[in-house]
Amino acid sequence: MLKLHLADFSIEHFLQHYWQQKPVVIRQGFPHFSDLISPNELAGLACEAQVESRLVYRTDGHWQAELGPFESYERFGERDWSLIVQAVNHWSPAVATLVEPFSFLPKWRLDDVMISYATPGGGVGPHIDLYDVFICQGSGRRRWRVGAPGEHRQFAAHPALLHTDPFEAIIDVELEPGDILYIPPGFPHDGVTLEHSMSFSVGYRAKSACALFSGLADHLIDNELGSALICDPKRPVHHHQGRIDGSDLARIRAQLQGILDDTSLIADFAGSYFSKTKCNLDLQELEYPFSEAGLSDELEARSLIRTGGLRCFYVDETVGQGVCYIEGERFEFGAACRDAVLALCDNERLSHAMLKPWLQESAFVDALTRWTNGGYWYFED
User: Please, are residues 89 and 52 in contact by the beta-carbon 8 Å criterion?
Assistant: First the structure.
């Protein structure tokens, strides 16, 4: 099992002084780290249509990018190109273990584990990200330059590549296997591979108010909520037809604020919204599904493992009713199953001992059986 090693400061110090504030190099954050997936296996994933991938390279000094799937890589030669594959934690159980050392951050902020394989001189160019990232160096070496945030001009070096102008580096470092570079949002950075190398990037992304309001609107529509109309009986005579006066504006704000003040509604929205994955999951439905009794028996012998990338959350407002949110869907099992929900959502691995107190709760066992038969959880080999 991977364990994060912080030689110079504690996790608490990192959160207080670096997280979303400034970049930092963590030397040997993963001592004796070796690639969690081989370059050939990564290239194989990028051949699959359901896996998001891209190739970035330069031709005669001009940046180029292509979206997968890819049939072969021979035409790119031995220099100046990178293969980037998104959400590899969804497809590789070994890569999924890279998320666990960062469990001091809430899973709802997790984006995915992106992996880059690059040849000497390869990179994606200087750019600015809108998410926090822990870049974990696997095999090979890569040089990283990181600049300070500011008014950096961004431009399209290619329709699929947003670059930024050259910047003065505040960090200029070579990463070796096991080293980690943390970069918050807004800091320009540029990585250039010095030799054939693999980089494993654990990304954490927040949502904008625009995205949240758009998601909330979809939630209201899908669940037929928020349909009450503005009500204004006994209003005074209106003398200016084109005017939205202060009183009317207050009514409009109150109607919108009433939605935001409904804590149960917002809890259900947040749980559903953040539990929905943005990329495909590697769901393997069972050819011979378990019965509820069969699942309980099997659980005595083997633990259940959550499939990579599956998002399972609970919210303080509703967990008392045994409510959890999985892959965008709300499930309610009753107050007696509150702690079962905690076990389900807080752990990647579920043992019989963890779940034993609730294996007689029919609704919970029925859901767990359906999830397992559908590939959301699977029994370890």
Answer: no
